[in-house]
Design goal:
The protein is of the alpha/beta class and about 850 residues long. About 40% of the residues lie in helices and about 15% in strands. Bound molecules: adenosine-5'-triphosphate. Adenosine-5'-triphosphate binds next to helix 14. Belongs to the helicase family. RAD25/XPB subfamily.
């Protein structure tokens, strides 16, 4: 008699991973990966936004599942079942050759677990990143989630439900459960059925199903928006998939060739079943070459938004595509990648999702910091070869984008202009590239004459491509406005983390497009494209006097106490000393600007926060980059996104924004681009200093969730070896600690704490606008505080001269900085001449 296999006990490597996570991520940093209770309800999508989402809930309704389970499975439960509760999947029969198949599907929640050690893992991963959302990718088991948006994206790159279910079935250890099949079918049946195509400046509604178009023509809203006098429905053949050349690729060929090149042949020793699976995957790919006929009718330009809205109401979300190769109405831009530019395999892969069927699809590409999003954007521009508008978060990024275009492509410098508060240039030819900021375009109210003229120019023409840099950062209302005022054929959103702490992330799906590609951070680190990072959480016990005060304080004061905890200060001092001696460049992040200044001044380090003037910022950043005596920089929240930071190899976080996963990821991103990443055994370091037994520990584990899901393991350090022997260790005597505590209490009592946390949204506006508002009450100087505090308690601040001021004084006499200044001056002149 054949032995009945139990699914719950056969997910290979599960135990191993569990063990790993216990040893490497103790305490609060336990990964949420396997067995996580995440459900669709907890994703970033809300029900009201998307009809299809309702279908998910219905299709994957747990009650529905449970009733099925009881009916069909009652008998299968055995003596061990009660250990698994709702997670007893023993009723699912495994396929006889399940060992060769890398996936397991959770019928309750649509989770897909991938054995990343399987020989088929690479293929399976490619497939899964196309159809599902990566949820967690630690060493051995990866978790993906099927969501309406991920399936929408899959349809947008040309897969149909049959393909998705077939490949899933081939790779799965169990037959694809019926509710998962239904879910895939119900989510995908309407997506992509209707496309909005701009061809020769005319908008068309296009579909491969003529009946669908007839239905739309009869609709009371859409019917009247058809261009009167135009042919009812025209029929042409669909473009062939993969006929496109993406510049910068090795074979400079599109999807099919790129995919074929990457298709790994079965290794020696792999058995026949695996070869079968390879063969099926390849067969499925071949299907995509079939060209269908497409039918279309023309619609009026003004009707586009109404039609999109109406189609959504009808449950037929419109897919936007740009047939740029047949766009003869817009001038062609003379741009190509330089022959030396070779895009990397993941950059190529992300672009092949965008240009999969020879047209440009709008959507989001997610790559970790430093992985080269700029070059992806530039290559997209070189592929489309039409007018491009790029939106950045700061005027500094604007300058960088322009420089990168000049570095990687053969664009004529006159064809790429910038639009910022200081520069309102236009390109000279009949088409070109404009690099600007969200703020410049989204700004409401009266503009200066030049700015208005520039806006008229931007609004008065059609763009081939709009690149939205750092889309996760731009306030939702801003990108909504930008997208509505600029007429563009395609949109590409670039980001490192599709995370927002507000609920606006799903807006991106509809305002820009679905996620087209998300890279695996660990894979990129292993391949040396980004740095390997050691993450550690350092537990700092509170001193008795601080903890006593903590227990008797309100939450605002408690947070000040856990930041100013003398043991945390000592840990920070020790780590700075240790890493400076190793030759690292260190950034210490503190959201709390009071703590930032106290720490930096006591340790005699430079610091930058919202109120640091632009010239001082530049001076400090230059010193941090080039001066071997300035190796540590203290940074407030503005360093998360708004500053172009020089390279660092060690990060220390002393205060953060509650449980913000995005901030944690952004901060880690600051060290991923370390140039030394390819040195033998090189690691960058990321420390989070956490005061033990305080609420900060809870926030800390929440913050780490995203990075843990990317495969990072946070080690917990409970004692820093040798800290006691550090010369000049601060706060070693009870008197010093008491003095610090009384300063903290005075600061809290002074009511000056309102300005301790900078408002990043404000900064977003401020940096771009170039005019810095002074925030009331946020200015803290020793003088002001000592007046409030009675003087003697601020003794340490008075004694320690600010390193920032020292730098300012030294600047004049340092020949190196004279040279830097001269070079800058030259560059500025050269740019002006350009
Ligand atoms: N294909 C490539 N070949 C060589 N160098 C590359 C390639 N792609 C990117 N780079 C280099 O990698 C570095 C990081 O690129 P880039 O600044 O575009 O990253 P990013 O993803 O935009 O990072 P961030 O999110 O921090 O802005 C740059 O120095 C860039 O020139």
């Amino acid at each position: 008699m054949p032995v009945k296999r139990k699914a719950s006990s056969t997910v290979k490597g599960a135990d191993k991973t569990k063990k790993d996570s216990v040893t490497s991520t103790p305490g609060p940093a336990t990964p949420r990966s396997i067995g996580s209770s995440d459900e669709y309800e907890s994703s970033d999508v809300t029900e009201s936004e998307d009809e299809a989402h309702k279908r998910v809930k219905t299709a994957l309704d747990i009650k529905e599942y449970k009733s099925k389970k009881v009916g069909s499975v009652g008998k299968a439960r055995d003596s061990a079942s009660h250990h698994f509760g709702d997670h007893d999947f023993s009723y699912l029969s495994l396929k006889p050759d399940h060992d060769n198949r890398p996936l397991w599907i959770d019928p309750q929640k649509g989770r897909i677990i991938l054995e990343s050690f399987s020989p088929l893992a690479t293929h399976a991963q490619d497939f899964l990143t196309t159809v599902a959302e990566p949820a967690s990718r630690p060493a051995f088991l990866h978790e993906y989630k099927l969501t309406p948006h991920s399936l929408y994206a899959a349809v947008s790159v040309g897969l149909d439900p049959k393909d998705i279910i077939n490949v899933l079935d081939r790779l799965s250890k169990i037959p694809v459960p019926d509710n998962i099949r239904n879910f895939i079918t119900s989510c995908t049946q309407s997506y992509g059925k209707v496309k909005l195509v701009l061809k020769n400046t005319k908008h068309y509604l296009e579909s491969s199903d003529p009946e669908m178009l007839q239905r739309l023509l009869k609709d009371e809203v859409i019917g009247p928006l058809r261009v009167q006098g135009a042919e009812d429905i025209t029929t042409t053949s669909a473009p062939k998939m993969g006929a496109l050349v993406i510049p910068g690729t090795k074979n400079a060929a599109g999807v099919q060739q790129a995919a074929a090149e990457q298709q790994k042949q079965p290794q020696e020793g792999e058995n026949v079943n695996q070869e079968d699976i390879f063969a099926t995957l390849n067969e499925d790919d071949d299907d995509e070459d079939d060209a269908d006929a497409v039918h279309a009718f023309e619609i009026v330009d003004e009707g586009v938004e109404h039609i999109q809205k109406r189609c959504l109401e009808l449950g037929l979300p419109v897919l936007e595509e740009y047939d740029f190769r047949n766009d003869d109405a817009n001038a062609t831009l003379d741009i190509d990648l330089k022959p030396t530019a070779q895009i990397r395999h993941y950059q190529e892969k992300s672009l092949s999702k965008m240009f999969g069927n020879g047209r440009a699809k709008s959507g989001l590409i997610v790559l970790p910091c430093g992985a080269g999003k700029t070059l992806v954007g530039i290559t997209a521009a070189c592929t489309i070869k039409k007018g491009v508008i790029i939106l950045c978060t700061s005027s500094m990024s604007v300058v960088q984008w322009r420089q990168e275009f000049l570095k990687w492509s053969n664009i004529n410098p006159n064809d790429i202009a910038v639009f910022t508060s200081d520069n309102k240039e236009k390109f000279t030819g009949n088409t070109g590239i404009i690099v600007t900021t969200y703020n410049m375009v989204a700004q409401k109210g009266k503009r200066s004459y030049d700015s208005q003229k520039m806006m008229d120019f931007l609004q008065g023409r059609e763009w081939g491509l709009m690149i939205l840099d750092e889309v996760h950062v731009a306030p939702a209302h801003m990108f909504r406005r930008v997208v509505s005022v600029i007429k563009t054929h395609s949109k590409l959103g670039l980001t490192a983390t599709l995370l927002r702490e507000d609920d606006k992330i799903s807006d991106l799906n509809f305002l820009i497009g679905p996620k087209l590609y998300e890279a695996n951070w660990m894979e990129l680190a292993e391949q040396g494209h980004i740095a390997r990072v050691q993450c550690a959480e350092v537990w700092c016990p509170m001193t008795t006097e601080f903890y006593q005060e903590y227990l008797n304080s309100n939450s605002k004061k408690q947070s000040l106490l856990w930041i100013m905890n003398p043991r945390k200060f000592q840990a920070c001092q020790f780590l700075i000393d240790y890493h400076e001696k190793r030759g690292d460049k260190i950034i210490v992040f503190s959201d709390n600007v009071y703590a930032l200044q106290v720490y930096a001044q006591k340790l005699k380090k430079v610091f930058i926060f919202g109120e640091t003037s632009n010239s001082e910022r530049l001076r400090i950043l230059e010193n941090f980059q080039h001066n071997e005596n300035i190796n540590t920089l203290f940074l407030s929240k503005i360093g998360d996104t708004s500053l172009d930071l020089p390279e660092a190899t060690c990060l220390i976080q002393i205060s953060s924004h509650f449980g913000s996963r995005r901030q944690e990821a952004q901060r880690l991103g600051r060290i991923l681009r370390a140039k030394r990443r390819n040195d033998e055994g090189f690691n960058a370091f990321f420390y989070s200093l956490v005061s033990k037994d305080t609420q900060e520990m809870v926030y800390s584990s929440k913050r780490q969730a995203f990075l843990v899901d990317q495969g990072y393991a946070f080690k917990v350090i409970t004692h820093l070896q040798g800290i006691e022997n550090l010369p000049d260790l601060a706060f070693t005597t009870p008197l010093e600690r008491k003095e610090l505590l009384s300063n903290v209490c005075i600061h809290d009592d002074s009511g000056d704490t309102a300005g301790d946390y900078e408002d990043v949204d404000d900064l977003f506006h401020r940096i771009d606008g170039g005019k810095r508002k002074k925030k009331k009450g946020a200015k803290r100087t020793a003088g002001t505080l000592s007046e409030l505090a009675g003087g003697q308690d601020m003794a340490y601040v008075e004694q320690n001269k600010s390193r920032n001021k020292e730098l300012k004084k030294k600047k004049e006499s340092n020949p190196f900085f004279k040279k830097v200044q001269r070079e800058q001056q030259k560059r500025r002149l050269a740019r002006d001449e350009e």
